């Protein structure tokens, strides 16, 4: 009878983790580029009560007798379905349609990845000259398809000033600027977009950043790789969270009911044990 106590306790722990994940999803419902997490469960070890060949008279018995010992979370998996594209007033905001990620360089020099394209053009000094560098909102540089910082000079060869809100980005991520006649000319720099064989295997950091792991596989550069479906960069938009509030509310109710049922098992077991202890009275 004690087994039921521990099995129900594991169920309560598992559903608490489930509720923690649901709460995190709901709290990030308006986080740019956020991807929903889902808890997956697995059963714990089974205890053999009887083997397949044991009966009272020694005859063969085709079916054994096993009892389970509870449940635990097997994984918390990110669901990387496309989020809605939300219009932005910023010319330096970009959304990705497809499976790609932007590449970011952290303060330590590590390369990480994100779907949050809410970028800014920050003033910078490159090789002793004034430049505009594409960065995240907290100042981390966005990298090009060649793995370099995306920096463009603030003046063209004819001396005219380059204005950040006139910079245009094509669907392939190519950066361009209008010439004297108003035609967009490429500046020879492309925003890096990368894919992964298993994006759910990426390691999650704060600020909607992900790091490469053995489970995710190495980053696949869309600019230099063939045989993959290329993503499209959309300027003037950001990708909203893919959290479905209605689904999360249903999942919350299911988790609550499962938690209540496991607590009821503990109460019932306690009542049965109390009855057994009072048999001699």
Notes on the protein architecture:
This protein is of the alpha+beta class and 281 residues long. It has two domains: 106 residues, no CATH class; 155 residues, no CATH class. Helices cover 21% and strands 32% of the residues. It has a six-stranded antiparallel beta sheet with strand order 16-17-8-7-15-18, with no helix packed on it. It starts with a helix and ends with a helix. The mean pLDDT is 90.
Count helical runs: 2
Please tell me what the overall shape is. elongated
Total number of strands = 20
Report the span from N to C terminus.
21 Å
Order of helices and strands: HEEEEEEEEEEEEEEEEEEEEH
The secondary structure category is: alpha+beta
User: What about the largest sheet?
Assistant: 6 strands, antiparallel
Mean pLDDT: 90
Total individual domains? 2
Low-confidence stretches: none
List keywords for this structure.
281 residues; alpha+beta; 2 domains; six-stranded antiparallel β-sheet; three-stranded antiparallel β-sheet; 21% helix; 32% strand
Task: Explain the layout of strands and helices.
Elements: H1 2-27, E1 36-43, E2 46-50, E3 65-68, E4 71-79, E5 85-87, E6 94-97, E7 101-105, E8 111-114, E9 120-126, E10 129-135, E11 151-153, E12 168-169, E13 174-178, E14 184-190, E15 193-195, E16 203-204, E17 209-211, E18 220-221, E19 232-235, E20 237-239, H2 245-277
Antiparallel strand pairs: 1-4, 2-3, 5-20, 6-19, 7-8, 7-15, 8-17, 9-10, 10-11, 12-13, 13-14, 15-18, 16-17
């Amino acid at each position: 009878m004690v087994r039921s106590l521990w099995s129900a306790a594991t169920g309560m722990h598992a559903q608490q983790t489930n509720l923690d994940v649901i709460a995190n999803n709901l709290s990030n419902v308006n986080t740019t580029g956020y991807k929903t997490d889902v808890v997956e469960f697995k059963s714990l070890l089974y205890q053999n009560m009887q083997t397949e060949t044991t009966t009272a008279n020694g005859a063969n018995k085709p079916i054994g007798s096993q009892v389970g010992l509870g449940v635990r979370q097997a994984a918390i998996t990110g669901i990387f379905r496309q989020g809605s594209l939300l219009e932005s007033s910023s010319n330096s905001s970009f959304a990705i349609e497809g499976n790609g990620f932007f590449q970011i360089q952290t303060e330590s020099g590590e390369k990480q990845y994100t779907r949050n394209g809410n970028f800014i053009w920050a003033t910078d000094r490159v090789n002793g000259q004034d430049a505009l560098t594409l960065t995240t909102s907290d100042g981390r540089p966005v990298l090009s398809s060649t793995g370099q910082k995306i920096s463009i000079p603030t003046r063209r060869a004819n001396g005219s000033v380059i204005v950040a809100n006139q910079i245009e980005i094509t669907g392939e991520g190519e950066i361009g600027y209008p010439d004297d006649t108003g035609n967009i000319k490429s500046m020879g720099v492309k925003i890096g977009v990368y894919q992964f064989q298993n994006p759910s295997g990426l390691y999650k950091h704060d600020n909607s950043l992900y790091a490469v792991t053995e489970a995710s596989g190495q980053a696949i550069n869309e600019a230099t790789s063939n045989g993959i479906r290329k993503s499209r960069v959309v300027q003037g938009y950001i990708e909203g969270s893919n959290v479905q509030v209605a689904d999360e509310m249903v999942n919350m109710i299911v988790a609550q009911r499962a938690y209540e049922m496991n607590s009821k098992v503990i109460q019932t077991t306690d009542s049965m044990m109390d009855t057994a202890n009072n048999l001699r009275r």
